[in-house]
Design a protein that fits this description.
The protein is built from ten helices and eleven strands. Strands 1, 2, 3, 4, 5, 6 and 11 form a seven-stranded mixed beta sheet that branches. A four-stranded antiparallel beta sheet has the order 8-9-7-10. The structure holds adenosine-5'-triphosphate and L-homoserine. L-homoserine binds next to α4 and α5. The site of L-homoserine has 13 residues, from α4 and α5. It comes from Sulfurimonas crateris.
């Protein structure tokens, strides 16, 4: 059995805890029942001894498998991880979603993507990463009475993501403590109207307005100050022709949307100026969670 989940970029500027999209960088897990429990990791996290035992995936998997089957069973898990951890590319969402989907698959229970998404909300209270992780594409999402309500837009292949991944982790829980406890009415209206315009731009494929629409007054500045090079990353991305350039999730990665034909030039410029950071050109992902027997 194989389950794979894409990386995600959340917020997209003003859409704090609401907007997110999926990119083609995946964590894959293969698993089967076994006499003994075992975990093997290839790629991201392979040198992290803490992940070899009862990691976030294993604890959520066991919780759901035991609930669904009322049985205990050992599994052999092999993880092929591409999503860097605590860099704002939705590594925790990918793990949460893949653990819930894997437990259902292992228990032989068919489950809808919507149900998996609602289960995932128990472990990550904001829906902006878990929704594109499950659904793929661009998503606007909200939570009402413990359920995620979302709308998806398929992303065309003539636009690409250029991500700049710093060598510094930024833990989401800590990054949330950097934000103000309240916002002025003026700033709330600013973010609300920019979020609304961003959603309309994505659905109408009006990419040129995203530079303006993706401006934010809620979270980016406070977080970017912890890694001031990110202001330079954003400036360089825009000077090189990016359509939008925003802090990815709670950081530290910076996400830019670009036309395919500009992607190599923009990525090269960013690599030259920020040689200490990893720069990747990625396709957008429209599939989200994939489960294979
Ligand atoms: N491959 C993995 N295996 C097990 N646990 C993981 C894995 N990837 C991430 N995690 C867990 O998720 C935590 C990182 O979550 P965090 O929310 O800080 O980062 P993120 O999800 O990458 O960022 P963001 O939510 O801003 O996109 C790690 O500390 C670890 O507990
Ligand atoms: N909306 C979340 C995304 C990170 O998980 C935040 O910015 O804190």
């Amino acid at each position: 059995m194989t389950v794979s989940v894409p990386a995600t970029s959340a917020n997209l500027g003003p859409g704090f805890d609401s907007l997110g999209l999926a990119v083609d960088l995946r964590n894959v897990v293969e698993f089967h029942p076994s006499k003994f429990f075992s975990v093997s990791i290839k790629g991201e996290g392979e040198n992290n001894p803490k992940l070899k035992g009862n990691n976030l995936f294993v604890s959520i998997f066991n919780e759901h498998y035991n609930r669904l089957t009322k049985k205990r069973q050992n599994f052999k898990f092999t993880f092929y991880n591409q999503i860097p951890m605590s860099r704002g590319l939705g590594s925790s969402s990918a793990v949460i979603v893949s653990a819930i989907a894997s437990a259902h698959e292992a228990a032989g229970i068919n489950v809808s993507k919507r149900r998996i998404l609602n289960h995932a909300l128990v472990y990550e209270s904001h829906p902006d990463n878990i929704t594109p992780a499950v659904m793929g594409g661009f998503n606007a999402a909200t939570v009402e009475k413990g359920k995620v309500f979302s709308q998806k837009k398929h992303l065309p292949d003539y636009i690409k993501a250029v991500v700049v991944i710093p060598n510094k982790q930024m833990n989401t829980a800590r990054a949330r403590t950097l934000l103000p406890k309240s916002y002025s009415k003026e700033n709330a209206i600013y973010n609300l109207s920019h979020t609304a315009l961003s959603v309309a731009a994505f659905f109408n494929e009006d990419w040129e307005i995203l530079k303006l629409a993706s401006q934010d007054r809620f979270h980016q500045k406070a977080r970017m100050k912890t890694l001031p090079e990110l202001f330079g990353v954003q400036k360089t991305a825009y000077e090189s022709g990016a359509l939008m350039s925003t802090l990815s999730g709670s950081g530290s990665t910076f996400f830019s949307m670009v036309y395919d034909e500009d992607s190599v030039a923009i990525a090269n410029k960013l690599s030259q100026k920020f040689p200490e950071f990893v720069v990747k050109i990625l396709d957008f992902d429209n599939d989200g969670l994939i489960v294979e027997k």
